[in-house]
Amino acid sequence: MATVQVSDLRKSFGALEVVKGVSIDIRDGEFLILVGPSGCGKSTLLRMIAGLEDISAGRIDIGGRVVNTLSPKERNIAMVFQNYALYPQMTVAQNMGFSLEIAGMKKAEIDKKVAEASEILGLNPLLKRKPSQLSGGQRQRVAMGRAIVRDPDVFLFDEPLSNLDAKLRVQMRAEIKALHQRLGSTIVYVTHDQVEAMTMADRIVVLRGGCVEQIGTPLELYDHPENMFVAGFLGSPSMNFLRGKIEGQSLLLAGGERLALPSLPMAEHGGDVVVGVRPQGFSVGTQDGARATIKVVEPTGADTHVLADIGGTEITCVVNDRVDFAPGEEVRFSITSKQVHYFDPTNESRIG
Amino acid sequence: MTAIAPRREDDALQLKPRRDPFLIILWIILVTFALVWIAPVVLIAFTALKSNAEVMATSAFTPPQEIAWNNFSGAWARGNFETTFKNSVIITVIKVPLGLMFSAMAAYALARIRLRFGKLLLLFFLFGAMIPFQVMLAPIFTLLNGFGLIDTYPGVILPYLAFGVPYQVFILHGFFKAVPKELSEAALIDGASHVTVFRRIFLPISLPVLAALLILDFVSTWNEFAMALVLLQDRHMWTLPLGLMSFQGQFSTDYGQLNAAIAMTVFPAVLVYMIFQRYFVSGLTSGAVKG
Fold it and tell me: What ipTM, to 2 d.p.?
């Protein structure tokens, strides 16, 4: 277990800068998730912490020690790769014991460590198998086993669940979280899946284009996104953005429709604003509110997603009831949520 | 279940898979080629077991009436096999594994270690494979003569190594490049050095390629003639292919003995093929990473 400090870290491939001065303080025992769209530099950042990628500028400390020039093996880290990267010619037990064997540990001790790890991960019946004889989920578990036998200071996970099917992903998500609670180790975890980030992380770092957009606990980010990118990235379906002018207690949309607002921005703001409302924050009816046209109705079973058009802006709304709208039907939308978010349309940052 | 009508005959015919005419043509071509390749083998086997009189009297593809085993003992003595066989074994047994080891290490370095002039080096290796050795024969002779290596084992093994390494590096480099990057990264994080990654990860998973290269290299080294002819002047240093020359007399040729000698020369290569072909199993990397 250790802290990890990333200070003004930069990485360029030729003229292209992919990590642009990232600073993150990762606490001891923290489960930190780096999340962002493809190409945001999150994997590069993780690989720099691992020592697999050179650092162009900046500093990385692990456990108070600068590791910039240290090789991966000197950093006492363990990494789980997206595609598992198991040694194909070795059995599960050999795969897990490989690092200990290289470290020169005695056979009996290796066996003990491997047994402990396989007990935790439920791999005991598979120890003698080769990776080719395992399913995807089992392989991923072996990859995790290989990481935990070493008692590393920091665990690094590079999109470990993206190769698994949806059901297994949910199961492994819970397992990794339970593993973290059991081992209490520092974990840096990269994903592009915001659901993974929300459910597992102690803190989330949202990255875009090589820069940190916001760092905070999942609920801080969900409830108080600092800009439209973070607001739109977290939450599923993503937040609706309505552009218009505030007039009194309501928002005047570009198409001339009015939506009543539950609250106003803290800071005084003249001119255009963007109002962010989560899909769960609307109600759909036939009586009051802004006029909208139904485009698509998607029943998921538990709830129904309604896509509609309000004065040229497409919005998604999640309703708990089974609704029976036809595409093209005119309905009325109103905001029921107490919490709406105000953003500046010019720089996309939060107002108030 | 009783409601199902009995199946009509043309329905049953429909179920039979149609044979792809392309596959049939392919098979015919394959069989033709196989016959072309098998014919000389049969000829050698039959002739090796016939007496000289029978060789002259019967057609080449008639099985021997009386088996003439003494062709083999005669050929062994006449071709000086005791010496040539020993020379061939020494040269091949040293050259083949050594060459393969050098090639594998070079290919690993070029494929996996970031080198400043890596691409240029690889090109340099490939260049070596492009030059026909006949062009180099005279300079090599002069060079080795200068070092006093004519008629010595190193005098043949060194040029063999030099001409064998480029194409092996080329093939192994391609294979190593295709090994998922994460595999070596995982090993580096596990604390392995490049030597360990090479020895413990890359060598085991490239067994099929190594076996193929070993067989190819064994056969070509074992059968090499032209360079040996130039570099080995002394009869006592001759290899098997050079020994076969002594069967081509100026005025007569003993076909029975010649073919017995050929059979004995080819046998070790066949044996090596049989031993190592079982490593030709594909999919050794399966399960390493999600495909």
Answer: 0.84
